[in-house]
Every structure is written in C-alpha cells, then in structure tokens.
Amino acid sequence: MSLAVSLTTASAADREGTDYYPTPADVTHALLDYLSLPAGTRVWEPACGEGHMAEVLKERGLKTHVTDLHDRGYGRGGVDFLATPAPVIVEWIITNPPFSLAEAFIRHALSLELPFALLLKGQFWHAARRRTLFEEHRPSHVLPLTWRPDFLMGRKGGSPTMEAAWTVWGASPAQSTVFAPLVRPISAALAAAPQQGGEG
Fold first, then answer.
1. Most buried residue, 9, 32, 40, 95, by CB count within 10 Å?
2. Which pTM was predicted?
3. For residue 119, what are the contacts with CB-CB under 8 A and spacing of at least 6?
C-alpha cells in the first residue's frame, strides 16, 4: 500500500467543511523533480493535513516544519498560516492551500519574502480579477500538471479529479514567468495504468 493511500482517512464532511483535499504523492514528486532542491533544504508545509505532502518532502531528503489550522493528528495543529510569521528555520514554503483561501495564502506568503510553491486549481489564473495579482507579484514559474490528480485517491464516494498547477514565486520579484508543463512521474503513471493481459 502506498503512503498516500495509507494516510487517507478524512471524511467527506471534513473535506466539504474545511476545503480539505489531500495531495496525491505524484503531484509533490513532480514538483520536486522540477525544482531539484538540495537535500536538507528546510521547507514549511503550513497546510499539512494528515501529512501526505510532508511525507514526500521528507522522503526526498528535505527537512520539514509542518503546521495546520486544523489538528488532524499530524504536525502542529492550531497554527493559522495567514496570521503567522515565517519560522526562522525555513528556506521554502511548499503547500496545497485550501482552494478557497488560495489568494490569501499567496499574499501572505509574498509578505514573508521566501521562495514558495503553491498547488492551485488549473484555472486559477483564468480570472480577470487576478490579473493585478499576477502583474504586481509575477510568479517565476507556472507548472501545470499534464494529468488530472485524483484528490480522493480512489476512495469510495467519488473521484474529484481536477486540473491543477504548481505556481512558484522566488524570494525576489520575477521579470518573466516560465511556463513548463510537468509530466507525471513514471512510477506513478505505470501504477495507474490498466494492466494488459498477455500469454505466458
């Protein structure tokens, strides 16, 4: 059983009430494959949920500081990212924010003057009202996923796949934005593919 599946315990009511959709492991691996952060980089995951993303960060050799507004038995609960200064020990912020709070997460992260990557809905930037945000705080990278992640990870009750994209900001303003679609990690793609029969 994969780590992503074994950690998945949230109920439908919890997801609806707190906008909580855990991040499949391949989504985090794809970002880290692209960023190539050095081992030991100190990363703050401020919407850690049950640890789906944080466990991948650790697996990839990064040091993690994990918090969440809600206590789900992983990391430190009761910490409101939107009202919290950056811990002095961290060098990056990487998280999947509640979709309804995505813009607030972006604006607060910008105030912390750290590089950060947020997983956003694929159509997040398809809104005229966000043009000012994009132009005034231009991200360094927009990294759309070339597959639709299953945020219920195959659990009974539905499979809300949706288009998603990582957006990355540097510690200083970007002059231009790199658009680079991310390919699903090969091991995850093979695991999700239907098995074909054969002789022998």
1. 95
2. 0.83
3. 23, 27, 31, 95, 96, 97, 164, 165, 166
